[in-house]
Amino acid sequence: MTTAILGTGSYLPETVLTSAELGKRLGVGEQWIYDKTRITERRVAAPEEATSDLATRAAQSALEAAGLTAADVDLLIVATSTPDQPIPATACAVQANLGAVRAAAFDVDSVCTGFIYALVTAHAMITADPLPRNALVIGADTYSRILNYRDRHTCVLFGDGAGAVVLGKRGNGRGWLASTLSSDGTQAELVRIPDGGSRRPITAQSIAEGQHYFTMYGRQVRELAARVLPDLMADVAKSADLTLPEIDLIVPHQANGMMLKDLAEALDLRPGQMHLTVGRYGNTGAASVPITLDDAVRAGRVEEDDAVLLVAFGGGMSWGGAALRWAPRRRAGGLR
Question: Which of 167, 128, 127, 156 shows the shortest CA–CA distance to 4?
Answer without folding.
Answer: 167
